[in-house]
Specification:
This protein has helices at residues 27-31, 51-58, 132-136, 210-213, and strands at residues 5-9, 13-18, 66-70, 84-87, 93-102, 108-117, 160-164, 170-173, 176-180, 184-188, 192-194. By secondary structure, it is mainly beta. It has two domains: 5-70, Alpha-Beta Plaits (2-Layer Sandwich); 84-213, no CATH class. The longest helix is centred in the first third of the chain and has 8 residues, at 51-58. The structure holds FE2/S2 (inorganic) cluster. FE2/S2 (inorganic) cluster binds at residues 168-169, 195-197, 199-200, 206-210.
Length: 216
C-alpha cells in the first residue's frame, strides 16, 4: 500500500487526502460541496465552512482517504461504539472503528478509523480497495454464514486487528459487528479469516482457494 497524500490546513484544522485510497464514493462532495469540489483548484477549500462541519463530513469518508486533525487538540474523531465491518455488494468490506492492520509477523502497518478493504484480490493498492472490483466484475455478495460465529451482545471496546497473511486471507481478531443488507447486524468476537483473494466459495470468509490463486 502506497500513500499519495495531499495536505490542506487552516489555523484550526488540518485535512489530509490520500489520492490512492479514494474510491470516489463522493460523500464529501455530496455532503459539503462548497468545501469539496472536484471542479475547483484546489479541490478542497477549507475556508468555506466551519471546521466542525468539515470534520463531521470527513468522518463519513468510508475509505479513510480523508482524515482531519483539529489543531487545538479538541474534538478529534469519535469512534463508533463497536468496530464495524460492512459488506459491500460486489465491492470491498468497509471497516470502521479502532483498526490496526498488521503484516503476517504482527508488525503494525497502519492504525486508522476507516478503511475500504479489498476483497476481490485485484487492487493494486492492497490491502486498500482501489475500485479494481468494477473492472474485474467481482461477484462478492453480502451474505455471510454466521452460524459458527457466536453472537455477543455487549463487549468492551477494543482494537480490531487485521493481520495480512502472506498470499492468504486477513485474520481478524477483536470484537466487531458484521453488517450487510442480507444479514443485518451480527455481533461477534470470533476470530475469522476474511478472503482477500476473491476466489472463496464461502465469501466473505476464506475457504483455502487462495492456494490456487496465489500459490507460494
Ligand atoms: S484468501 Fe481467498 S480463499 Fe483464502
Amino acid at each position: 500500500m502506497k500513500a499519495n497524500i495531499q495536505t490542506y490546513s487552516t489555523t484550526e484544522i488540518k485535512v489530509t487526502y490520500d489520492v490512492n485510497r479514494c474510491i470516489h464514493t463522493a460523500k464529501c462532495v455530496k455532503g459539503l460541496s462548497r468545501v469539496f469540489d472536484a471542479k475547483k483548484k484546489p479541490w478542497i477549500q477549507l475556508e468555506n465552512a466551519p471546521s466542525d462541519v468539515i470534520a463531521s463530513v470527513i468522518e463519513k469518508c468510508s475509505s479513510g482517504a480523508l482524515q482531519y486533525e483539529m489543531l487545538n487538540g479538541e474534538n478529534n474523531e469519535k469512534l463508533p461504539r463497536k468496530n464495524r465491518m460492512i459488506l459491500q455488494e460486489g465491492g470491498p468490506v468497509y471497516l470502521h472503528g479502532d483498526l490496526e492492520i498488521q503484516d503476517a509477523g504482527g508488525n503494525s502497518i497502519l492504525k486508522d478509523t476507516r478503511f475500504a478493504f479489498c476483497r476481490c484480490g485485484k487492487s493494486k493498492n492492497k490491502p486498500a480497495c482501489d475500485n479494481s472490483h468494477i473492472e474485474a466484475e467481482f461477484k462478492g455478495g453480502v451474505r455471510a454464514d454466521t452460524s459458527n460465529m457466536p453472537e455477543i451482545q455487549e463487549t468492551e471496546h477494543g482494537s480490531l486487528i487485521i493481520k495480512l497473511m502472506k498470499n492468504g486471507p486477513a485474520i481478524l481478531e477483536g470484537s466487531y459487528r458484521l453488517e450487510s443488507a442480507a444479514i443485518g447486524i451480527h455481533e461477534s468476537n470470533k476470530k475469522i479469516a476474511l478472503c482477500r483473494c476473491g476466489g472463496s466459495s464461502n465469501k466473505p470468509f476464506c475457504d483455502g482457494t487462495h492456494k490456487q490463486i496465489w500459490p507460494t
